[in-house]
Amino acid sequence: MLLHQFGSNDPLAAFDDLPQAQYLRCYLSDLDAKSVIEEPHYFDRDYLDEFAAYYSRVARPTTNHCRRLHFFDQDLTAQNLRAALNGSAVEQARMEASYLGFTVLRPLDHAPLGRSVVKWYPDDLPRYKGNPRITSASREYRVHLAG
Question: How far, in Å, CA of 26 to CA of 3, rounded?
């Protein structure tokens, strides 16, 4: 796993020419994102289904794994991450409390952003005041970082 600070040099910044990435970066900025953890070798079930249906029959070699980016609203360090992975309940709780969501980066030139699941922004942000969300029911996601 790789640790990045959210901003102009994180892995999502490489896709700033795409409107979807711009929207996601603005949304995460509104949520006060500060850190990004990158899983550089992630098998996404949605992408694997697509890969099996189409890309496995294409003559050009295409990788079957993705990258997944996790976003946090606290400044994380390698020490925090190592402690959480080694079972520190305090660090695990800290990371869970600051977790904002994830996005999958697929190895596709024409559609690199895959499944993205992010925390809802608060309705009381100044830019959204007076415009409450109207949504249908959503589902709960359980995310496991590093297995």
Answer: 20
One-letter identity of residue 26: C
- From the list 51, 24, 146, 30, the residue with the least C-alpha distance to 106 is 51
Q: What is the pLDDT along the chain (147 residues), one digit of tens a residue?
A: 899 999 978 999 999 999 999 999 999 998 999 999 999 988 777 766 666 656 566 666 667 778 999 999 999 999 999 999 899 999 999 999 999 999 999 887 788 888 888 988 776 666 666 666 666 656 777 787 776
Confirm whether pTM is higher than 0.85: no
Residue 63 has which token pair?
């990788």
For the chain, the farthest-separated pair of C-alpha atoms sits apart, in whole angstroms, at 53
